[in-house]
């Protein structure tokens, strides 16, 4: 199941992408319009800023803004930043692979085969969608 952190991160990014200009938006405005706790949103936006998706301006007229065009923000990258691995099992992950302790043979493991297919299809969908695709 998708975490609230990822859901709210996507909502905040789409809110920023839908702005006609790319002027900074205060956290309180995003939180109010997207029904997200300010405290929780602060941590999410900081993570997105540190990951290179957002910029921030302090002071009057300050807030967060996109530093990349929405078409250049891959939802697969956003998902990995906010949620972690796309695979549901560590043995089916490309970037976070770990052998399962209870598995004798990965090549014959039915759970791994199924979860690899789920990962591949999920990855295909996330990689084929940018922030622009989902925001407009």
UniProtKB/TrEMBL annotation:
SUPFAM superfamilies (alphabetical): Winged helix' DNA-binding domain
A GO term from the CC aspect: cytosol
InterPro entries, sorted: Tscrpt_reg_Rrf2 (IPR000944), WH-like_DNA-bd_sf (IPR036388), WH_DNA-bd_sf (IPR036390)
GO molecular function, one term: DNA-binding transcription factor activity
Keywords tagged on the record: DNA-binding
Pfam families: Rrf2
Signal peptide: none
The keyword DNA-binding is annotated on this UniProt entry: yes
Domain of life: Bacteria
NCBIfam families assigned: rrf2_super
The protein, known as: Transcriptional regulator
Organism: Flavobacterium cheongpyeongense
